[in-house]
Specification:
There is one protein chain. The protein folds into 2 domains: about 140 residues, Rossmann fold, CATH 3.40.50; about 220 residues. Helices cover about 45% and strands about 20% of the residues. The radius of gyration is 24 Å and the shape is elongated. The protein has about 375 residues and is an alpha/beta fold.
């Protein structure tokens, strides 16, 4: 769903000194296609690279043979999407170890030909490989960008059997990668309260729903395995938005509202390692939020614009896919959303939901 890349400084040095773009314009086209992809993020320090480029650009701008190089450096700085982290650029080995130390799953290293000879691995790309296999790499990037995920639950399947399946590991690694560059994750699922508890019409009391502990287990899994991957540990937070159903609104009275609130407080308190909030909104939003979404934002502030959004995922069935004792089969699909749809439809709807008055809200501090 996202592609994480890194460029060594020697990649750009060799690009300039060997004037590779003048000789091979297909390299420039390759990077234009790559950098304009909404799902591609470069890891490193953009300001450090800008300083590295300034002297080159000033020296090259009057050299007509280096026009493509100057165009590329300006295009790179303007269009590349960055997540700032400190890296060791002294050598490719040290640079690679920087990612290993941070448990980062990097998709592509772009390096010089000399560095490529030092560590010849599939995800280490030099200009020769771009010229030979550029279209193949672009197809791989596109495939990763629009990759849909699934979890298929089998009846009576043990949890230990679920987590070793390939599809589950793909799901887990993809969500961990998304969380890596996120400081805030927002989960919108209108059905959460009604899947934790329900109103028994016969006894007129609130009782546990059969899915309650599946929801608990799923949130605990995210707390342990997903949220904790964020590189912004100090500021990371999860916000959960749900909606008071009209049936619950009819049934709530001064007695059972205490139980209702307690169940929601217990749910958000499952978070032990990360800050979290749960907001239950008015039933007026019920028909507007039929679908379920998970939004990954780069910064924790109130900016929910497209520019701050890493990715959003449309998921069905429910936030209950970590089942310890499933009594039936279940299929869960996770579909990456399109930025244009977010900008035109969801951004305004999400802002309205966030800004509206809470019916109930609880906070959990890490």
């Amino acid at each position: 769903m996202i592609v994480l890349t890194c460029f060594s400084k020697d990649f750009f040095t060799s690009l300039i000194k060997d004037n590779l773009l003048h000789k091979n314009p297909e390299i420039l086209e390759f990077f234009k296609n790559t950098l304009l992809n909404d799902s591609v993020y470069n890891l490193g320090d953009k300001e450090e690279f800008q300083k590295h480029f300034v002297n080159f650009i000033d020296k090259l701008k009057n050299d007509s043979t280096q026009k493509r190089t100057v165009d590329f450096l300006n295009f790179f700085l303007k269009n590349s999407k960055w997540h700032t982290i400190s890296l060791k650029h002294e050598s490719l080995k040290r640079l690679k170890n920087s990612f290993l130390d941070k448990n980062l799953d990097l998709d592509f290293f772009f390096v010089s030909e000399k560095e490529k000879r030092e560590i010849n691995e599939n995800n280490i790309i030099d200009c020769r490989k771009i010229m030979a296999s550029g279209n193949k790499i672009l197809k791989e990037i596109s495939k990763k960008s629009f990759q849909a995920l699934e979890i298929n639950i089998r009846k009576n399947q043990k949890y230990d059997d679920l987590i070793i399946r390939k599809e589950f590991n793909t799901f887990k690694k993809t969500f961990q990668k998304l969380a890596t560059i996120a400081s805030r994750i927002i989960i919108c699922d209108r059905y959460i309260p009604d899947n934790l508890i329900f109103f028994d019409k016969r006894t007129k009391k609130i009782k546990d729903n059969n899915f309650k502990y599946d929801y608990h287990n799923t949130l605990k899994f995210f707390d342990d395995e997903i949220f904790s991957c964020s590189l912004d540990r100090e500021n990371f937070e999860c916000k959960i938005f749900s909606i008071l159903s009209r049936n619950s609104k009819k049934q709530l009275d001064s007695t059972n509202v205490i139980k209702y609130k307690k169940e929601l407080e217990n749910f958000i308190n499952i978070l032990k390692k990360n800050k979290g909030y749960i907001h239950i909104k008015s039933d007026a939003f019920w028909k507007l939020w039929h679908r379920r979404y998970i939004f990954f934002f780069k910064n924790r502030d109130l900016d929910i614009s497209k520019d701050n959004l890493v990715k959003f995922i449309d998921y069905d069935t429910g936030f209950d896919f970590i089942k310890k004792n499933p009594t039936d089969i279940a299929e869960y699909d996770f579909i990456p959303g399109h930025m244009q749809h977010y900008e035109q439809k969801l951004e305004g709807r999400l802002r309205e939901l966030i800004d509206s008055k809470d019916f109930i809200a609880f906070q959990k501090s890490a």
